[in-house]
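Minutes, project check-in
Item: structure for the 461-residue chain
Input as provided by the requester:
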Amino acid sequence: MLGRLRRRLREEAQLGELNLTQMRVLGSLDRNGPATVSSLARTEGMRPQSMGELVAALKSAALVCGEPDPADGRQTMLSLTDAGRKRVKATRTAREDWLARAIAAQLSAADYFDRRKLLLATQAAKGLLAFALGLLTVGGLVQLWHVYLLAFLLGSVSAFDQPARQTFVYDLVGDADLSNAVALNSTSFNAARLVGPALAGALVAAVGSGWAFLLNAASFVGVLCSLMLLRKGELHPSTRITRTRGHFVEGLHYVWRQRELRVTAIMLFLIGTFGLNFPIYLSTMSASVFHVGAGRFGLLTSIMATGTIIGALLAARCEYPTFGALVAGAAVFGGGLLVAALMPHYALFALALVVVGIASLTFMNSSNSLMQLSTEPSMRGRVMAIRASIALGGTPIGAPIVGWVADRFGPRWGVGVGAAAGFAAALVALHYLWKHRCLRVRIDRGRVRVSVDRREAVRGA
């Protein structure tokens, strides 16, 4: 899909004898208003001389005009002409139409609807799907295509449920306690991961899988009751926006324009695609390296879940999320997986997984909180939908690659791919800090001192 989009953009640019960089500059002027050559060069990461040549070409095409800057007569403020605005609008409309057809579903419903009511609908739908699977199983009527269909419907509902659920945390607590609330939410989620499989196994052994599905459906009654009993007057709802064409694409543009959001999304893609493949790591290491059975494989899952709970509790102590915690989480994640890949014994491998669990939770929580707090309220649902798409959609891409590496070169090399993803994400963040936040490392009295300029995080651009 990305290849087809790239070809489409090139075709659009060639039709009007404009290259992609020129189209990007026109788009920047359209979004941000008049700007100088130097400010455009900084925004696009170009040399001022190169930007000056590009702007001259746009002026000769009557797409851009310049007027003296009232504050500094030596500077020229560039703006779009009527022809330039029409060109941007035509290109954007064509691109949005293409993306609307390419994207199967828009995941930004959390920006358009009451999130509490949306969660009531999605949680009720999940409960009904579990109830249907339970009835089919208890009645002895279930077939494989039933499971496929219900799984597809569950995934479709989750596409709307997850962004709404993540942004609803903000509606519950507001800005001040968001970081702590996200961490506590992760604690409950990972505690369920720790206890749930064991409880489900006991239920299946005692009453059968069909009744376990029905009990799962009954558990949604408690969720629905808690949502209905919330005191709506004490919530912190964001202003809902009117749904119009292109708002999902606007969310993509918004994430890409904000440097910190863009870097966080790239880091999340790297770790989500190539790092969070724990079923492959644990199963291949258990079977092929340590030669243990299903029981000790399940124990590794519980040990890692213990690490994530510890990480969530540590994160809950932080008053405000920091970009440094995101970088540290990525680096320690890579280091933990590297150590795990080298461990000669099962017990040492399990201990390394605790560190990996803490680091992965720190990274995921920090990315969640930072993306919410650095996003305008009207864009929060779409940004979190994009985050969910990256975090969940990357794994199906990376898992076959990691699995092939583990099969071709051995399980330890498969774990090494995850370690490389963590280190790569940390390097992306360090490059951003060095280039845009003035990262400085110095030795003062024998101690290493690290400093960054926090202003970029405040500007968010």
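Outcome recorded: The beta strands are 64-68, 76-80, 440-444, 447-451.
No further action items on this chain.
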